[in-house]
Amino acid sequence: MFCFQCQETAKGTGCTIKGVCGKTENVANLQDLLIYTLKGISVFAVQARELGIVKPEINKFIMESLFTTITNANFDRSRIVARIEEGLKLRDELKQAIIKAGGTIAADLHDAATWTAPAGEFEQKAASVGVLATENEDVRSLRELLTYGLKGIAAYAEHAYTLAYKDDGIFAFIEKALAATLDNTLPADALVGLVLEAGKYGVEVMALLDKANTTTYGNPELTKVNIGVRNNPAILISGHDLKDLEELLIQTQGTGVDVYTHGEMLPAHYYPAFKKYENFVGNYGNAWYKQDKEFESFNGPIVLTTNCLIPPKDSYKDRLYTTGVVGFEGVKHIPERADGQTKDFSAIIAQAKKCPPPTEIETGEIVGGFAHNQVLALADKVVEAVKSGAIKRFFVMAGCDGRMKNRDYYANFAEALPKDTVILTAGCAKYKYNKLNLGDIGGIPRVLDAGQCNDSYSLAVIALKLKEVFGLEDVNQLPISYNIAWYEQKAVIVLLALLYLGVKNIHLGPTLPAFLSPNVAKVLVENFGIAGITNVEDDLKIFLG
Ligand code: SF4
Ligand code: SF3
Q1: Is the confidence at residue 340, as pLDDT, over 90?
Q2: What's the complex ipTM?
Q3: Rounded to a whole number, what is the distance in angstroms from the first to the last CA of the chain?
Q4: Ligand 1 centroid, distance to 68 Cα (angstroms)
Q5: Distance between Cα 488 and ligand 2 center (Å)
Q6: Which residues does a 6 A CB cutoff place in the pocket of ligand 2?
Q7: In a 3-state reduction of DSSP, which class is residue 444?
Q8: Is the beta carbon of 21 within 6 A of some atom in ligand 1?
Q9: What confidence score (pLDDT) does residue 455 get?
Q10: For range 153-177, the mean pLDDT
Q11: Ligand 1: which atom is nearest the Cα of residue 15?
Q12: Which of 490, 495, 508 best tests ligand 2's pocket when mutated (most atoms within 8 Å of CB)?
């Protein structure tokens, strides 16, 4: 195996024996083969589109499969194998549709578009199609950067899709870009172009998801979220899927079972639509990597709707459920919605009733809900505070949290920031500083949480609005600095989206991606001023100039 798609990759270079995330060698290889299969399907999808053939089942399959391979989503070998089998089938159906429409199948198609094998030979095939199959390190770097951006796009597209929002332009781009990663004649410049174009679609997909979420559940609003517990049996829901949460809340009404959020589900509390559920108690715990302790002390069943799942401990494995693209061998899975129906959470609810209430690990509350609508509602106050000098600078500290010790930097950085600065956050990165009680500036909290990682879109909307209000030419003239923490591939698309919007001088940590070759990193440094982090003291000097 060779995987270097996340920030915690072994030795900062690549996982080669087993993933630091717990992904086994055969699952890693099979995920590579699934991506390879998607690239082959995409070759035909691009040709089919030229003939006016667009197959919704192909779009959906590619989207879900990309999401399946995101870090900490699916560790279940059999699910990946089944996807590859389905992919080969869909690829051939698409090829037949092209022939039927009068298209000619090229004689020199890439192996990705022609290979086939029984499931028993997948692992053997997988060994030759991974990341290292691209020998030139710069081309490899660009292809992987693009692919990881596409995984992020696919994840957000899937959430929007679940709420019946889709955009065919996004699917067409995913297919075009996947097919391009097979093209050995494509110059590096063209690949760089596709990486930047991915940023454009990153903005579009986050805007689409924002529309899906806010139209369905209302605009997030200033909310205090309880972090303590009540004395009822309860279910913990994690991941990013709001539709799963909604259906769980509906199905738990009147059962005596409470519902708590974990990790990236925390921002669900900010949406008006979920406030009517009296059993929606609060948020339990912190970011994903603490689940091994927090799932244990929660005592009740836990449902993972998306990443991040870590390999479960025996102490709670029988209380754990996956759904959607998430999977882990030996963990119960809630099947997809049958047409027009809801998911069936009855098994989880029945198990919850037999479990003791959660053990309290914290008390108090945290404040959030500062997505674009809420912040713009406070715009006058914010603009006034900037004009009067009460707020000197904003720090966008969006992205991910993670298990490595060097992420303490972000807690220390947040604490060391001068009192006249405000943190704008989104994603699970917030857990490093959302309980620090950093105070407020004239009633404006010093940590403004917009929501999940995809709600980084809100931070961009806010920045663009401030640019307009202050009559500036360029978003980089605003008193906003970017100190972003990344872990998985959704953070990659958030970064590419910010670059597309013209944001310069983003600091990215705790380490730069292993998949950036020195030359590709140089392109990002020279064109966008991307930099890493050093230590709090020196970085503060740079940021505060
Ligand atoms: Fe390693 Fe990250 Fe890949 Fe897991 S996802 S195998 S930790 S690089
Ligand atoms: Fe977190 Fe996995 Fe990235 Fe959505 S839940 S931000 S790491």
Answers
A1: no
A2: 0.98
A3: 44
A4: 14
A5: 7
A6: 72, 240, 263-264, 288, 307-308, 400, 427-428, 452-453, 487-488, 490-491
A7: strand
A8: yes
A9: 98
A10: 98
A11: 1
A12: 490
Tens of pLDDT, residues 480-528: 999 999 999 999 999 999 999 999 999 999 999 999 999 999 999 999 9
Write the single-letter amino acid at 307. N
- For residue range 103-160, list pLDDT tens digits in order: 999 999 999 999 999 999 999 999 999 999 999 999 999 999 999 999 999 999 999 9
Q: Counting atoms of ligand 2 from 1, which one is nearest the CA of 72?
A: 2
- Nearest protein CA to atom 3 of ligand 2, as residue: 400
Q: Does any ligand 1 atom lie closer than 6 A to the CB of residue 20?
A: yes
Ligand 1 and 19: CB distance under 6 A: yes
**What is the spatial distance between Cα 190 and Cα 171, in angstroms, rounded to a whole number?**
19
Q: What is the pLDDT of residue 192?
A: 97
Return the pLDDT at 545: 85
Please give the distance, rounded to the nearest whole angstrom, from the Cα atom of residue 116 to the centre of ligand 1.
Answer: 27
For ligand 1, the distance from its centroid to the CA atom of residue 291, given in whole angstroms, is 18
Q: Which two tokens stand for residue 290?
A: 């603490």
Please state the pTM of the whole predicted model: 0.98
Q: Which residues contact 27 (CB under 8 A, 6 or more apart)?
A: 74, 75, 76, 77, 80
Tokens of 395: 């720090």
- Which residues 6+ apart lie within 8 Å of 413 measured at CB? 397, 483, 536, 539, 540
Which numbered atom of ligand 2 lies nearest the CA of 490?
Answer: 3
Please give the Cα distance from 79 to 85 (Å, whole number). 10
Q: Which of 81, 177, 79, 184 is nearest to 125 (CA)?
A: 81
Helix axis angle for 137-162 and 489-500, nearest 10°, is: 100
